[in-house]
């Protein structure tokens, strides 16, 4: 079961560096020297008046733009049902689901019908039911229900492709599993609302499908 973690965005801080420019005003003094030939010294010397220094401009405060509002932190909710998926390749498709006639019998047949309805809306061809894939899916659903495990890796260390080949199908494509759902409609809703599971269901390269159900464990085995 996936663990959802909420990470909070770090608090923003603004450090504003203001550089002060020092202005050095140089005063130039004019010195008048008397020539040696000048014998008369004036009783009063005229002092040249320095021009008045210009007034420094009044400091203008920096107007900082307001900080943008922090984006809302997403929250997550969890339910008692679980889903997980694995596949050798994935393809992203649209996911609108339409009604489809029932194919096969029982929950497995209804899952197959819902899968093909979703694929038709996405522009993919229908997947055909396959006895070997049905057997692999059903056996693994029973195994998980009996052992209380929930993983694409079996208690014996096998992965989905090994289980599918052991059941007699030579070109495995992907596997979806789920636990806690009580109907075909409920498990398909959960799978279609999960990006990884949806990619498997809407992968146009898949041609066959096996579905297994035991207690509240569900398995889809896709083949090419």
Automatic annotation (TrEMBL):
Residues 68-103 are annotated as: Disordered. Residues 112-216 form the SCP domain. CDD domains: CAP_bacterial (cd05379). Residues 72-103 have a biased composition (Low complexity). InterPro entries: CAP_dom, CAP_sf. Pfam families: CAP. PANTHER family: SCP DOMAIN-CONTAINING PROTEIN. This is Uncharacterized protein YkwD. It comes from Actinomycetospora corticicola. The lineage of its organism: Bacteria, Bacillati, Actinomycetota, Actinomycetes, Pseudonocardiales.
């Amino acid at each position: 079961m996936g663990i959802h973690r909420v990470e909070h965005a770090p608090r923003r801080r603004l450090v504003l560096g203001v550089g002060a420019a020092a202005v050095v005003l140089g005063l130039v003094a004019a010195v008048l020297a008397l020539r040696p030939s000048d014998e008369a010294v004036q009783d009063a010397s005229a002092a040249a008046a320095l021009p008045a220094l210009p007034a420094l401009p009044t400091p203008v405060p920096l107007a900082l733009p307001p900080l943008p509002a922090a984006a809302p932190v997403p929250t997550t909710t969890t339910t008692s049902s679980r889903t997980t998926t694995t596949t050798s390749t994935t393809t992203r498709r649209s996911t609108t689901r339409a009604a489809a006639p029932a194919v096969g019998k029982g929950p497995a047949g209804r899952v197959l019908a819902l899968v093909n309805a979703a694929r038709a809306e996405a522009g993919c061809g229908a997947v055909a039911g396959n006895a070997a894939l049905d057997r692999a899916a059903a056996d693994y659903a029973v195994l998980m229900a009996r052992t209380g495990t929930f993983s694409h890796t079996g208690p014996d260390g096998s992965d989905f492709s090994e289980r599918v080949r052991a059941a007699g199908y030579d070109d495995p494509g992907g596997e979806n599993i789920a636990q806690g759902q009580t109907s075909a409609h409920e498990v398909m809703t959960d799978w279609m609302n999960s990006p990884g599971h949806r990619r498997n269901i809407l992968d146009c390269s898949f041609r066959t499908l096996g579905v297994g159900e035991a207690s509240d464990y569900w398995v889809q085995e896709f083949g090419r």
